[in-house]
Amino acid sequence: MTDQKPVDPAQILTAAYDEYSDAIFRHCYFRVFNRERGKELMQETFMRVWEYILAGQEIRNMRAFLYRIANNLIVDEARKKKEASLDMLQEDGWDPPGADEVGKMQNNLEEQRVLQTLKKIDKAYSETFIMRHIDGLSPAEIAEIIGESTNTVSVRLHRAVKQLRVLLNNAS
Asked: Cα separations (Å) of 89 from 4, 33, 35, 63, 73?
């Protein structure tokens, strides 16, 4: 007879929050381009996980599950709202996290250029590119999150990079 102690849902959520909250926020932020809304979406993601855990459901891959919930919330957000203009982003204080103060202005211009260019490529490609190169997810993790094959994800990544190169080179 084995004594298995029941897992505390609060411990599961706390551990997941500690490990993934920054990454989920960053993912949301780079998808909606609004710091406050990114925070709200990250918080809503963890609230949904909490409800799922309390309902007694099992989560096999917490990271992929969190990204899937965040993606679903972002899609819902996009359906409700028009695309933000660059002027609106600047008025809202668009300021990517992690840029040091010395090179901030130069970095902002380059990041704005890349982010604006990301908006010009196919949405499936840009979303996959963000998950891979900003969120640091592997193609297998992205495939699990979006419900596609790893091969499809790899093709999208390749095409995203190809389209970005063309657009960025033409804009220079």
From this structure: 51, 7, 10, 29, 20
| Structure tokens belonging to residue 161 | 């990079």
Q: Of 16, 18, 28, give the one whose Cα is nearest residue 63.
A: 16
CA distance 80 to 54: 29
The predicted model scores a pTM of: 0.62
pLDDT at 118 over 90: no
Task: Sketch out the chain's domains with CATH numbers.
Answer: 7-83 (1.10.1740), 102-172 (1.10.10.10)
> Looking only at Cα atoms, what is the longest distance across the chain?
70
Tokens of 46: 């963890």
What is the CB neighbour count within 10 angstroms for residue 162? 12
Q: In this predicted model, what pLDDT tens digit does every residue of 42-55 receive, in sequence order? A: 999 999 999 999 99
Q: Are 62 and 18 in contact (CB under 8 A)?
A: no
120 or 85: which leads in pLDDT: 120
The whole-angstrom separation of Cα 110 and Cα 92 is: 19
Residues near 171 by Cβ (< 8 Å), separated by ≥ 6? 113, 117
| Position 98 pLDDT exceeds 50 | no
